[in-house]
Amino acid sequence: MSSVESFSLEKGRGGGGTGLERSTESISRLRMVFGCAAIGALLIAALFAPWIAPHDPTLDDLFLINMPPAWLNDDLAYFGIENAWAYPLGTDSLGRDVASRLIYGARLAVIVGVSVACLAALAGVILGALAGFYGGWIDNAISRIVDVWLSFPPVLLSIILVAMLGTTLTSVIIVVAVIDWTRFARVVRADVLQQRSRDYIDAARITGGSDLSILIREVLPNVQPLLVTLFFFEIGIAITVETILSFVSLSVSSGAATWGDMIAEGRRVINEAWWVMAFPVGALVITILGLNAMGDALRFYLDPVLRK
Amino acid sequence: MARLLVTIGSIFLTLLGVSVVIFVILRLVPGDPISMMLPPGATDEVRANLERLYGLDKSIPAQYVIWLRNVAWLDFGMSTQFRLPVMEIILDRLPATLELVLLASLIALVLSFAFSILAVWLQVDSATLAIDGLAGLAQAIPDFLWALIFILAVTLFAPMMPVSGRFDPRTAQDFATNFYLLESLVTLRFEAFAELIRYAVLPALALGLPLAAGITRVLKGALEEAMAQDYVMLAQTKGKSRLAIVLGEALRNAMIPTIALTSVQLTFLIGGTVLIERQFSWPGIGSTAISAVINRDLPLIQGIVLVFALIFILINLASNELYRAADPRLRTSR
Amino acid sequence: MSLLQVDSLSLGLRGTPVLREVNLIIEASEIAGVVGESGAGKSMLGKAILGVLPRDVTVTAGAIRLNGTDLLALHPRARRAFLKRDMALIPQDPLSALNPCRTISAQLAEVLPKGTADAKMEVIRWLDAVRIPSATKVAKSFPHVLSGGMRQRALIAAAFASRPKLVIADEPTTALDVTVQKDVLHLIRELQRETGVGLMFVTHDLCVVAKICHSVTVMHGGRVIEQAACTDLINRPAHAYSQALLAATPRPDHAGQGLEPVPTALIERMIAEAGDG
Amino acid sequence: MKKLLGPLAGAALAANVAFADDSTLTIAYNVSLPSWDATVGVSAVNPTIQSIYKSVYDQYIDQNPDLSFRPGLLTEWGWNEDRTKVFMEVREGAFWHNGDPVTPADVVWSLERAGKEETGNPIQFLWSTLGNFTVDGNRVEADVLRFDPTIFKWMAFLTAYVLPKDYYTEVGAEGFEKSPIGSGPYMVDEYVANSFVRLKRYDEYWGGAPEFEMVIFKFLPDASARVAEVETGASDITLEIPYEEYDRLAAKDGLNGVTTPVSDIGMIFINDVGVMEDANVRKAAAHAINKDLIVDRLLRGYGVPIDTLQAPEYAAFTAETTVAYDPDKSKELLAASGYSTDNPVKFKIQTTRGFKPKDYEMIQAVTGMWKRVGIEAEIEVYEIAKHFDLRARDALAPAAFYNWGNSIGDPSTSTGFSMFGPSPHSTWDTDDVDAMIGPLWGEEDEDVRIAGYQRVDAYIAENAMVIPLLQFVQPIIYRDGLSVTPHVANFLLPQNVSSN
Predict the structure, then answer these.
(1) CA quadruple A120, A121, A125, A126: dihedral sign
(2) Which terminus of chain D, N or C, has less C-beta within 10 A?
(3) Contact at 8 Å (CB) between A222 and A191?
(4) Regarding beta strands D74-79 and D130-136, do their DSSP bridges make them parallel or antiparallel, or are they unpaired?
(5) Using one digit for the tens of pLDDT, what is the confidence trace for A226-257?
(6) Which residues 137-166 of B have a C-beta within 8 angstroms of D?
(7) Closest C-alpha to A41, from A297, A293, A286, A301
(8) 0.90 exceeded by the pTM?
(9) B227 interfaces chain A, CB cutoff of 8 Å
(10) Residue C235 to residue C229: CA distance in whole angstroms
(11) Does B207 touch chain D (CB under 8 A)?
(12) Chain C residue with minimal CA distance to B255?
């Protein structure tokens, strides 16, 4: 309230920074709102799929093939239904309800995304932390493995791996995690390396903490803001890669309603029934945008340096 | 000199690791080239005979040792699919991929630099927001979806744009190399160049857009940060215009973090050629890779993976050197 | 006609006043001190004169005249020409005021007046003038190899090299080691005397003001509290705030005496007088 | 690596349609040609690639679009009385693309090469049934080392191409890959693997020079790319596109369509493991599938429902063997084995996806129909490579969808290879079926052989040891001004396209 405080912007070194900080703050808030909305919708769809979805997402009806969304459906007689809104977003080339598949697709997206991110983060954090904390030959060995891993073309490797492991939900999750753990390992290693040299680690050492307890209690919490951001990005990446694998017809089969599956299928009938592809593409893009926005915003809020 | 040796040594070590991993993975994949060749009615004997012929009857380590020994003499084996030396196929296809990647990177650089500089120069909230939004969208849509969108858009709105191949096979020219684009440019055949660009622009755009978005995010942030520095204010007092300051003062500093982050993104772009080439029927190494996987052409997959790995490693090295060169603080303290 | 004449200048940050009706006159060959605590608006005044205000801070009223020309009424391009030709800044923080990616020589050469024959030699001459050792080598190097004091010297050289009429020094010594501060101060005064420019010296340190300034403007809360000749203010501060400020300043001639902080009660009263919250 | 191409026309910068001139035929083709050796190697037994081989090379014996046989480079052929020898008359007046005449020596060399183990010819086992060739003028004779009644049908089938002996020995295998020559209606002009091949008319072709001066096969494995190609006018003709797109494009101005049932069927292999050893389950699965509905709705009518492995054009087809759609019967059969919709029988079904039109979707629909009678099948998508591997190791799931091409229409290459236990390509493996098929391999009397296979087919249908679904229909879209004679063997031959 005091005018002295309102001038505090003068403290910012150089004038240009002040406007920037303000806009970053407001953009971050905007991002947070958008991210929360998108992820909230995704989570609600995922959690309550059985209650929200109007139909069984795998139930086909060969009499309802390629029915347009309700507001465009002007030939109810042909399809033999009374209420177009029973299939609000239309049906696909097997007569399955697009809306229901979209909702169950959200569920699978969350399962794939979160499992991959957890697995990749777990592997990456453990290896990255070991490498960063102990250094020496452990660091050398782990860094070498990361180097080798980063030298594989990811799409090609995932296609080969899925060909090897089969096309189930589990194998897709494993494949994406196997390919992407290096992202976490690299970041965590660099950060731990930096933290290790700080005074408070020595302080903890002096008070007799074991390596593990120091790592868990002192080092990792400081790495956490970056991890949270990475985690959100990774979920988006996992969902995208699943789509890619579906796209080359290598992903989850058994009629499971994944967005990738819907896109791959919709592409074949795009001129006939654009809605089969358009809705999952929209859902995918909004989800990734939401995740990225959330990751950016969280980094801003969690990182004391950036926030200042 | 010592540094060079260490670098070369570590490249070889990494490639060796890559080769071991891919070799083992490939032999665990169900389905093998022999099964692909067997016709209706072939007997087990025929199968055994073919396995012997392609050296697949030995143990995995033994196969690896044989393969490695040949690779030492730059013999990557014969493609079971094309019945030509792997090396020859790769050398034949690589130029198409490299040209695509080059064009895509060029597009990405031009777009990202133009937009970042524009945003920072204009300093208008609505423009900044619009550019941020565009970049976010471009990044959220993966390259293969862009390709899909482009192909659909072309059939709907611009049927004169080609969506497959490198050039129209009905109209072709004499090329001494497989670098058609570069060669037509160097030999000043501009009509041919324009025609080749027409074929390359959509796949390059699909590949380049996500990269452009990635670079824009980094570069714009770095530019904004640089513009908040005192030396920018000082430059203002020297009477420089805002554009001159963005270009003359901020850009150089903003380049440093941009280079570091772009190399990672560039490897994603190159990895993306695997899908994009297939979608646009681009006769490069990426589409060859997919057909090699589908047909279980093991020697070819191994060769291609190694080439990708080598390219990735070289890009990382190059970006490290570039990073050093761009930052005077590193240059002198080396 | 004075070199610089600021007429009831008011600045606002999105509606909130930053400067209120500030008047200031600087004559050629004069060193005019502007003192105040952090947040007093003194640096903002300098930036307003130079036309490098932050994006959200706008001039709401008043005029800034340089040799009679109202800078605020000029087209931005014309104003930039004025800036380039007639004004210069010695910035607060030498560490961040030099572009790390450009050589010292490049950053100095660009301010030299148009038509300078041998820019390279001129740069080295200026580096010598600010007493930078092995100037030839330094000219070719990037800022990170120089110490803070060296960088500030280079920046001072840059400020004077453009042969301006008005130099604004924005707390030029605050970021420096105490040992270096004195030398730099000397240097500035010396160059000012040699070139005869008008110099606006922004600082929070009355001590420094006492040493080099001819006139002093005391600022607080965005307004001018008191303006007087330097000796007058040091010896007979008229305004209670000036007195308090003076009491809070260590003075070489009053060694050993305890320092009195500016009383909060006084500040609060002043704020109440200003009539805003 | 030097590309020997024609001059770049200035018009290249205009729209693609500007090139749709009558002398060039551009085909948006669904598979990529990997190798030019039509006898040896992976692509040799790939049925989809044969159109290109048949444009460049001649076969010993050719096939009409309706699958009937006609002379190729052989004008006459047959066995002697006791089937210990074969004779072949080699055509006179045929020339290789380099101008050399096609000689009986070429035919002998090609047959001998095809029969050699070390070349890696996958059909080697068949060609090696002939040996001790003798040449007398244009007549080639050979001993029958092992009798195979289908040998002359195979001479119009996979790997049965005549290659130039002298040229091949001169340039070697690699040289031949780089610049192949044949004696067919078109010569290879330019070939960019994974991209396109450009063929030039061979004016000296013994069957008369074909109509188009230039033929381009663009390799476009992606169906939507092929659709875009014909829609934008970049290609004149394409095939193997989704039926929805076929209907849409055929209705468009400037484009026409033709569909033909081809010698390719979709079937569900049944593996004699687990629940599939229960005949009730198998029969219930067979009776629960409404093939007509699948064809009508899912394939928009483009398909011919079948009940045996013989399509109507095949030699052993008979309309008498049928498997009715009868879901009530399925429920009864399942009930007899203790299954119901509440307690469904469970097994896995494998399928390709996007390899044949609506393959995956069909299996989705099938499992949907099964669900209604009490069969719960879990779908697993596999690639062709994995299917081959699993099939060779007899490790397929209890049910596995795949397609089976048979352009010579012989029952031995349909029912024979796919149901005979010892064949590595069979999935069903029981003694009763083997005992029925076994004697037919060497049966000399053609009528007895065909009737025998018809009996086997009836027995298999009765016991539901395989579930044939439909005969595929090949959709072809082409621009105005062309006329296309579709080939039942699923070929798209430029020789069969003409402009009008």
Answers:
(1) negative
(2) C
(3) yes
(4) unpaired
(5) 788 888 888 988 988 888 888 776 655 556 77
(6) 151, 154-155, 159-166
(7) A286
(8) no
(9) yes
(10) 10
(11) no
(12) C101
